[in-house]
Design brief:
- With 458 residues, this protein is an alpha/beta fold.
- Helix content is 43%, strand content 14%.
- The protein has 17 helices and 15 strands.
- It has a seven-stranded parallel beta sheet with strand order 3-2-1-4-5-8-9, with helices on both faces. Strands 12-11-10-13-14-15 form a six-stranded parallel beta sheet, with helices on both faces.
- Helix 10 crosses helix 15.
- The radius of gyration is 22 Å and the shape is globular.
- It comes from Urochloa decumbens.
- Keywords: Transferase.
- This is Glycosyltransferase N-terminal domain-containing protein.
- GO terms for molecular function: transferase activity.
- InterPro entries: Glyco_transf_N, UDP_glucos_trans.
């Protein structure tokens, strides 16, 4: 009698519904499937429609992200015209909209494990009602996690109030080898449109602290060589598996279609000549800042690749972009969304003007690209501090007294960045360590195998 094949372990993966959260959890899902797991990947209805539209625009309608990954979509609790860039409002409505349906799915599909985005920690309640085991996945740095855990002490010491408003403008340093952070640049300071939403965010972070301690695992998209001090401050020994960099196309995790003409255009440029500028999925520029950025890219005098997604600039239409394209001719290429990891790995790219989101930071590190840092909100200011002050792989860009980054500042900082051989050398050294961490025998690869073995346990 033939032996019965062992049943695949089913894992549910639950990202916060934003591009920068979906992408790394899709990468993790791909790795889990490669190790024999069945994955249910949960998008919101709104974002799943965007993914499908993106695939259709590239002629990949119906394409699977990866055999073994099943897409599930649920409502996010917001109306069709709601502002989903207001991440606090979006996050507040998710438990009511999703928790009951997730419980039903876990029971019906005999789900063994839930890998929950750190920003979806309310899902930890499903452990009590369904018996599912929960792993928390950090979609930002370990350092941000430790800062969030430090919130009660900051309130107790009178440095911030319960709404996160600054009471004493000090610098916070949790460990000697971690960067000191100005209180005005703490991750929650620039999130939320009013004090009530920031208060809700802080209270949620305080409430989540106990849930982290109860989680069965904490999984981090970083590597030990760059965040050893922050990792040592986590509530339990983490599984450190980053950087999670795509080994091939991951179109099924993108909300906008990737413009592959950017790669063929890069192929025609000289080595280390191109300035790449991209600001992630949430940053929004006003007309003045956009114009200065555009003029600055021209003033640099180098070829540039600039990502201007459809909702990047207020009051700017396709006509403005067409005029700009005509103005720069072949010197620059403007696309709505780029295959960023392929761009950063391209030999013609010289530097990365970045908002310093954690995914972009990990991708830039993995490919040894110097940064010109232009943070927008949340964790991006701390990531900038790591890049500039700890790793020494980039420079800050500075706004004038009106809060505008001028075209002259852009030109001067790019020249300074590309003229600094020390920055280039440190970026390549960091790339080498990042690559070493994920190959067979590397620290991140070993932790990924530990995570796989943990998931297989009954």
């Amino acid at each position: 009698m033939a032996a019965t094949a062992p049943q695949q372990v089913r894992v549910m993966v639950l990202p916060f519904p934003a591009q920068g959260h979906v992408m790394p959890l899709m990468e993790l899902s791909r790795r889990l499937v490669d190790h024999g797991f069945e994955v249910d990947f949960v998008n919101t209805d709104y974002n799943q429609a965007r993914v499908l539209a993106s695939l259709a625009a590239r002629g990949e309608a119906g394409a699977a992200a990866h055999a073994g990954i099943n897409f599930i979509s649920l409502p996010d609790g917001m109306g069709p015209d709601a502002d989903r860039n207001d991440v606090v409002s979006l996050g507040q409505g998710l438990p009511a909209a999703m928790l009951g349906r997730l419980e039903e799915l876990i029971r019906a599909r005999n789900t063994r494990w839930l890998v929950a985005d750190v920003s979806m920690m309310w899902a930890r309640d499903l452990a009590a009602t369904t018996g599912v085991r929960v792993a928390v996945f950090l979609t930002y740095s370990a350092a941000i996690f430790t800062l969030r855990a430090h919130i009660p002490k900051l309130v107790e010491d009178g440095i911030i109030d319960e709404s996160g408003d600054v009471q004493r403008n000090e610098r916070i340093q949790l460990s000697p080898k971690m960067p000191a952070v100005a209180v005005s640049e703490l991750p929650w300071t620039h999130v939320g449109k009013n004090p009530e939403s920031r208060r809700a965010l802080l209270q949620s972070a305080i409430k989540d602290k106990q849930a982290y301690a109860l989680a069965d695992a904490i999984v981090c998209n970083t590597f030990r060589e760059i965040e050893s001090e922050a990792l040592a401050l986590l509530p339990k020994e983490p599984l450190v598996i980053g950087p999670l960099v795509a080994s091939k196309s991951t179109s099924a995790s993108h909300f906008w279609p990737e413009d592959l003409t950017s790669i063929s255009w890069l192929d025609g440029q000289e080595p280390s000549s191109v300035v790449y500028a991209a600001f992630g999925s949430i940053a929004v520029f006003d007309t003045k800042r956009l114009q200065e950025l555009a003029d600055g890219l021209v003033l640099i005098g180098r070829p540039f690749l600039w990502v201007v997604r459809p909702n990047f600039a207020n009051g700017v239409d396709e006509g403005w972009l067409d005029e700009f394209r005509c103005r720069v001719g072949g010197m620059g290429l403007v696309v709505s969304w780029a295959p960023q990891q392929r761009v950063l790995s391209h030999p013609s790219v010289a530097c990365f003007i970045s908002h310093c989101g954690w995914n972009s930071t990990m991708e830039g590190v993995r490919h040894g690209v110097p940064f010109l840092c232009w943070p927008y909100f949340a964790d991006q200011f701390l990531n900038q501090s790591y890049i500039c002050d700890i790793w020494g792989t980039g420079l800050r860009i500075c706004a004038d007294e009106q809060g505008i980054v001028t075209k002259e500042e852009i030109k001067d900082k790019v020249a300074q960045l590309l003229g600094d051989e020390g920055i280039k050398a440190r970026a390549l050294s960091l790339k080498s360590r990042a690559c070493a961490s994920v190959v067979d025998g590397g620290s991140s690869h070993q932790d990924l195998l530990k995570f796989v073995n943990l998931l297989r346990k009954q």
